[in-house]
């Protein structure tokens, strides 16, 4: 039973890492935000928005893998492990989105809402 849980965790981690390898693209709202930005700041706004998205993706993967792995090691059943992985993914996404940029990006994004 332990081996099955470990294998399930590895498969889930493998599936979660695939979207992170895809190219990060901006959505319609973010492209509109870049277009509204001052001409001198457009490249920086685009860069900062992409960095924020990358941070959110990385945080989601790390949170899901960490919480799911901890639940498996702690002896939780499959349902508990998946629930923990989901909660970890949500928390990781929020944390990664906030820490994906530096103070310069924060200032640029604040200047260009």
From TrEMBL:
- Keywords on this record? Lipoprotein, Signal
The source's domain of life comes to: Bacteria
User: Where does the signal sequence lie?
Assistant: 1-22
What is the designated name of this protein? Outer membrane lipoprotein SlyB
């Amino acid at each position: 039973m332990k081996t099955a849980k470990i294998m399930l965790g590895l498969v889930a981690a493998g599936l979660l890492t695939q979207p992170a390898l895809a190219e990060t693209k901006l959505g319609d709202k973010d492209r509109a935000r870049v277009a509204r930005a001052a001409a001198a700041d457009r490249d920086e706004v685009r860069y900062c928005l992409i960095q924020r998205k990358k941070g959110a993706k990385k945080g989601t993967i790390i949170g899901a893998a960490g919480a799911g792995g901890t639940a498996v090691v702690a002896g939780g059943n499959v349902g508990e492990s998946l629930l923990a992985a989901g909660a970890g993914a949500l928390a990781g996404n929020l944390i990664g989105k906030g820490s994906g940029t530096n103070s310069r990006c924060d200032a640029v994004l604040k200047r260009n809402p």
